[in-house]
Design brief:
Length: 418
């Protein structure tokens, strides 16, 4: 199936939509394409929270909710715009759960992750489930492309820059994909491009290895998780878990010393320290770390914490985030090394006239985009691993709303080929 390289010369014009289903939210998007040479004229994005009760409801209830959310968005956006009556609209559907892909626009759900447990969807074509819900709710729309978030991000990255060869999602969860030569794969396991390449979805969050630097805190977190022995890499680098790792370290310090006094009870509560709060404390540049003190008092009922203790909290946050960033960088370099784009490998496709090729990695989600120290440590690690000269050829580029916009671009591409 041709998918990425076709986007570089996308000639379609018109309006296309996307639905990006995440762990806790769904984003609805609208893009307007202007045809050859004009790229994306404009785009609009809305984010909606998924009610917790729907994550364990029924297929009909869940897909009705997201189809109605999409319908209301479409009606708001098209209010006052001249439209062809009953014209069918094309939709890109970003569905970041394990799927057995049947075609560019269909796939069967293998299992739920990220806390979802809608049992009557497992084994069904999720595109069909969505189309049936849209039909029930009076929305004339067709799923033109079904992708996960990494492939959507890669598609948008490559749309703007042909040197984009990989994509990384690093937010609440994490995953990556890259473009591989089809002759380098043992079996067809990705989405074929018209350049002889194939998009490989790594599901790297589930990577496990004895070489990963796991600590007693990582082991305990995994043992107590509902998906023990799964998503090992994700539990060390993603936003869902970094705050919890830091909390476990701080809780042990509180148990073995009196640095936090008698007010450290709340440090025993699992997941009370969310990664955004960890980032806010880590990046506190106020005099005497006042922001750290405020967060400890308001969120953990720990008033009057000394400057020495606040400095310790910042140090723990720094160590946890730096390790995660360096592991992320190692994963990125591992992908580039696999396809000969790290500047070191002797793979012919990675060199032009003896010089390393420029390699762009599209990145999306808040851990990299919003956590400046994590971003700084990731970039630093790329340089540490490759050296300053070779690292100049590796570009980590934020692809804002890439997972959704990329899906809409793919829907536009394939709607023109039917």
């Amino acid at each position: 199936m041709e998918i990425i390289w076709l986007l570089a010369d996308l000639d379609e014009d018109g309006i296309y939509y996307a639905l990006d289903l995440g762990a806790t939210t769904c984003r609805v998007l609208r893009i307007q394409l202007g045809g050859r040479g004009s790229k994306i004229i404009n785009h609009k994005v809305e984010q909606h929270q998924i009610p917790q009760e729907l994550t364990s409801s029924t297929s009909e209830e869940f897909f009705d909710f997201i189809s109605l959310t999409l319908k209301e968005f479409v009606e708001r956006e098209e209010n006052g715009i001249n439209q062809v009556p009953d014209e069918r609209k094309e939709l890109g559907f970003t569905f970041s759960f394990p799927v057995r892909q049947l075609s560019i626009s269909s796939g069967v759900l293998i299992k739920w992750t990220k806390g979802f447990a809608i049992e009557d969807v497992v084994g069904k074509d999720v595109s069909q489930c969505l189309e049936e819900a849209m039909s029930r709710n009076g929305l004339n729309m067709h799923v033109g492309a079904l992708v996960n978030d990494t492939v959507g991000t890669l598609a948008l990255g490559h749309y703007y820059d042909k040197d984009t060869v990989a994509a990384v999602i690093i937010g609440t969860g994490t995953n990556a994909c890259y473009v591989e030569r089809s002759d380098a794969l043992i079996k067809s396991q990705g989405l074929l491009t018209n350049s002889g390449g194939m998009v490989v979805n790594m599901e790297w969050g589930n990577f496990l290895s004895a070489h990963l630097p796991k600590t007693s805190y990582d082991i305990a977190l995994d043992d107590e998780s509902p998906n023990r022995n799964e998503q090992g890499f994700e539990k060390m680098i993603s936003g869902m878990y970094l705050g919890e790792i830091a909390r476990r370290v701080l809780h042990r310090i509180a148990e073995e010393s009196d640095i936090f006094g008698e007010s450290a009870y709340h440090l025993s509560v699992p997941f009370i320290l969310r990664t955004p709060l960890m980032a806010a404390m880590h990046e506190d540049d106020s005099p005497h770390l006042r922001e750290v003190g405020r967060i400890l008092e308001e969120q953990f009922q720990m008033p009057g914490i000394s400057l020495k203790a606040r400095m310790l909290v910042v140090r723990v946050c720094d160590i946890v985030s730096r390790r995660a960033a360096r592991l992320t960088a190692a994963g990125i370099i591992g992908m580039l090394k696999k396809i000969g784009r790290d500047g070191i490998s002797d793979v012919a496709s990675g060199r032009t006239k003896g010089k390393p090729k420029r390699s762009v990695v599209a990145i999306e989600r808040g851990l990299y985009t919003n956590y400046s120290m994590f971003r700084e440590y990731t970039n630093e690690a790329i340089t540490d691993i490759l050296g300053e000269e070779l690292a100049q050829n590796v570009v980590l580029r934020v692809a804002e709303d890439g997972s959704g916009i990329g899906a809409a671009l793919l829907a536009a591409t394939y709607s023109s080929k039917r």
